[in-house]
Design goal:
With 290 residues, this protein is an alpha/beta fold. The protein has helices spanning 47-51, 75-88, 103-112, 131-134, 139-150, 152-168, 170-178, 183-188, 192-205, 211-221, 249-258, 275-285, and strands at residues 6-9, 15-22, 27-32, 54-59, 94-99, 117-123, 236-241, 263-267.
Length: 290
């Protein structure tokens, strides 16, 4: 069986694509990929998952990769999609992780499906977009998100242009996109295996166009999330680099204070891509060993 290119048909007729890594019968973890990404977003070395008896499931969000676009999509609607996949895979209990812009989707699952989720981890996580936290953003990210929220049609056009460029000139576009990252991230990006992973997951995100990516950023990430962080009952741990230019560490502090009992692990010398050095630690922590 091709574990990387799987899909199910949801009740409304949409196709939901997903990939599985690690042990076939290992402890299940749903990992929510970042923005402009896909089910191919995984550490280039999967051995940590096999060694720790983990089954990592990564879902293409609507309009990304091989998942059909959902014109009525929302953060909680994705959680409902995930619930159908969990039932299809006959999984009762699992953990959830969210990387960067995958954060709201992992937290949405935690809010909506507490009976299924043992624990949640948020890595370099995107926070609810409000005036209180935007002041911490770098100017580049702040401009992009402002554009997405205030001029969504223009933003959609720009993402469409970017999508075409990623398909035809991926290295040139990625170099520009990654240039804003911090010094610790630049060191991580010197590893060609990391670059290969990022290029593959980005290109796959735009396999069927840019509509899903643009919709998610403009209509979901910078809008109301449909739930409050203080309503989450699942144990949550935040993993955050203090030298993260993409997602400021203050966002992790903000969210951890909102969620009762949340843990916050700050890495003073790490950036946005700390997952490439700490994947084993992060995913092993999600395993239910009871």
């Amino acid at each position: 069986m091709n574990r990387i290119n799987q899909n199910i048909i949801l009740k409304d007729g949409r196709k939901l694509g997903f990939a599985e890594y690690g042990k076939v019968n290992g402890y299940p973890i749903i990992y929510c990929h970042g923005s402009q990404s896909s089910r191919l977003e995984i550490h280039y070395d999967h051995s940590f998952a096999i060694e720790n008896d983990l089954r990592i499931i990564i879902i293409d969000r609507p309009g990304h990769g091989i998942s059909d676009f959902n014109p009525n999509g929302s953060i909680l609607e994705f959680a409902r999609d995930a619930k159908q996949l969990i039932a299809h895979l006959e999984i009762d209990k699992l953990s959830v992780a969210g990387m960067s812009a995958g954060s709201p989707f992992a937290l949405g699952m935690s809010y909506l499906l507490p009976e299924n989720i043992y624990k949640t981890s948020i890595i370099s996580g995107f926070a609810p977009y409000n005036q209180e936290i935007t002041k911490y953003l770098s100017s580049e990210v702040k401009i992009m998100l402002y554009l997405a929220k205030t001029f969504p049609i223009l933003f959609k056009v720009l993402i469409k242009i970017q999508a075409k460029q990623i398909i035809h000139k991926p290295k040139k576009i990625l170099n520009g996109f990654l240039r804003i990252m911090s010094e610790p991230d630049q060191k991580t990006l010197k590893n060609q295996l990391v670059i290969n992973t990022i290029e593959s997951m980005f290109k796959e995100a735009f396999r069927n166009g840019s509509k899903g990516v643009a919709y998610e950023i403009s209509n979901l990430l910078v809008r109301n999330w449909e739930f409050d962080l203080n309503e989450i009952q699942v144990p949550v741990t935040f993993w955050q680099g203090k030298k993260d230019n993409n997602v400021p560490f203050e966002w992790a502090q903000y969210m951890s204070h909102k969620i009762k009992g949340a843990n916050l692990k700050i890495f003073p010398e790490k950036g946005h891509l700390l997952i490439f050095e700490h994947a084993k630690e992060i995913f092993k922590d999600l395993k239910n060993i009871a």
